[in-house]
Amino acid sequence: MHQPLEKADAIFVLCSNDIRVAEYGADLFLQNWAPWLIFSGYRGNLTKDWPKSEAETFAKRAINKGVPPEKILIENKATNTGENITFTKELLKEENIDPKLFILVQKPFMERRTFASFKKQWPEKDFLVTSPPISYEDFPNSEISKEELVNAVVGDLQRIKVYPEKGFQISQDIPEDVWLAYEELVKLGYTKHLIR
Predict the structure, then answer these.
(1) What is the 8-class DSSP label of residue 46?
(2) What is the pTM of this model?
(3) Which residues does 156 contact at the CB level (< 8 Å), separation at least 6?
């Protein structure tokens, strides 16, 4: 979404199988963009074999990069974006922390859906969305294949289309050429992450 960063009250990292997101969130904290670093996420299909939750794994990476543990909040129950929001709200209330502006950190291809979900489910807060500056060509690595990436992007776009009807996020325009590309990719078999 190319939203420019500004000083915020907390950096909120939505966890996943991509540890580069943890590293980017830690870098933003270490660059003093916000005084708190939140990691939210339990385990998903791609992380079910991890010994600890995504949030705990991400937090460990942040601590290894130099983030003080006392500046990290860990929410380790969420299994989807809605739960990331709900359970983090509860955690912040328990900790008596009330951020007004969040920097949301996510994978590049999930920025728009993250923004739409937070706008719908936590409208009283302000958000900026960012992600590690990784190009499509450079995104696949030893843990995430190109095939896995394309499947994930296709599934994410489907959710941008159908989740507003379910009340999960605000509606957003999808350009016609983007939707045609989605339909072609589905025909080619990139259906692993589609909602049935």
Answers:
(1) T
(2) 0.95
(3) 109, 110, 113, 193
Kindly provide the residue ranges of all beta strands, DSSP E only, lying in the chain, ordered along the sequence: 10-14, 37-40, 72-75, 101-105, 126-130
For 153-178, the pLDDT digits (tens) are: 999 999 999 999 999 999 999 999 99
What's 71's DSSP letter? G
Q: Is 107 helix (H, G, I), strand (E, B) or coil?
A: coil
Distance CA 114, CA 116 (A): 5
- pLDDT, one tens digit per residue, over 68-85 is 999 999 999 999 999 999
Domains and CATH numbers, the chain: 10-187 (3.40.50.620)
Please check whether residue 75 is in contact with residue 88, taking contact to mean a CB–CB distance below 8 angstroms.
Answer: yes
- Per residue in 150-160, is it b (16+ CB within 10 Å) or e — as a string? bbbbbbbbbbb
Whether residue 102 contacts residue 12, with contact meaning beta carbons closer than 8 Å, is answered with: yes
Note every long-range contact of 88-94, with CB atoms under 8 Å and residues 24 or more positions apart, other chains counting.
Answer: 88/12, 88/38, 88/40, 89/122, 91/38, 92/38
Count CB atoms within 10 A of the CB of residue 187: 9
